[in-house]
Amino acid sequence: MIRSLLLLCFVLGASVHAHAGLADNEISAESVTGSNIAKKQRWNGLPLNKSYAELSEQEKLSIHALYQDIKAGDEPPYPLKGMRAIIDPVNKITKKILVTGNLELLLTVNANGEGENVEIISSPDPKFTQLVISILFITQFKPAICNGQPCAMQFPLSLSFERRFN
């Protein structure tokens, strides 16, 4: 009997143990053509309830580290109300759809802070993945800043789901 489903929300670079040789706080993804997202990412425990503006400089730098080539003064996209705007609805879905595995998505956020398209890197369940994509599309983002102007950029979302038996 499943007594609990644990959602491990290692957002923006989950710990994925399927890749041998990586530390617990690293993820290795296959090369994605045209993506600026780093192939090896680290999660540094960012607060879920803070907007990008509310993050400390160190926390912002840890987000910047997720990207291969982000210039000084540029900023990546980020949920306007913080990661909680994504994680809370995903938690509700996991109470109805029990999934195990990794979900890795790359959302392209346009210069208006809206999701335009999603690239699915890995999915534990097609129906679940489509529900999470719907959440991403209704989430308002702070757009990326490139050379002082709002611009389009990808936003990585990586979640790991595990069933635990008590």
Descriptive report:
By secondary structure, the chain is of the alpha+beta class. It has one domain (4-164). Helices cover 19% and strands 30% of the residues. It has three helices and ten strands, in the order βββαβαββαββββ. It has a four-stranded antiparallel β-sheet, with helices on one face. Strands 2-3 form a two-stranded antiparallel sheet. A hairpin with a 2-residue loop joins β8 and β9. The chain is globular and about 50 Å long. Mean pLDDT is 79; it is low at 1-34 and 38-44.
Span between termini:
9 Å
The portion of residues assigned to helices is 10-25%
Total individual domains: 1
Computed structural class = alpha+beta
Which spans of ≥5 residues are poorly predicted at pLDDT below 50? 1-34, 38-44
The order of strands across the largest sheet is 1-10-5-6
Biggest sheet statistics: 4 strands, antiparallel
- Listing every helix as H and every strand as E from the N terminus to the C terminus, the arrangement reads EEEHEHEEHEEEE
Number of beta strands: 10
> Judging from the principal axes of the Cα atoms, what is the shape?
globular
Rg on CA atoms, Å: 15 Å
Rounded mean pLDDT score = 79
Percentage of residues in DSSP E strands: 25-35%
Structure annotation, total helices: 3
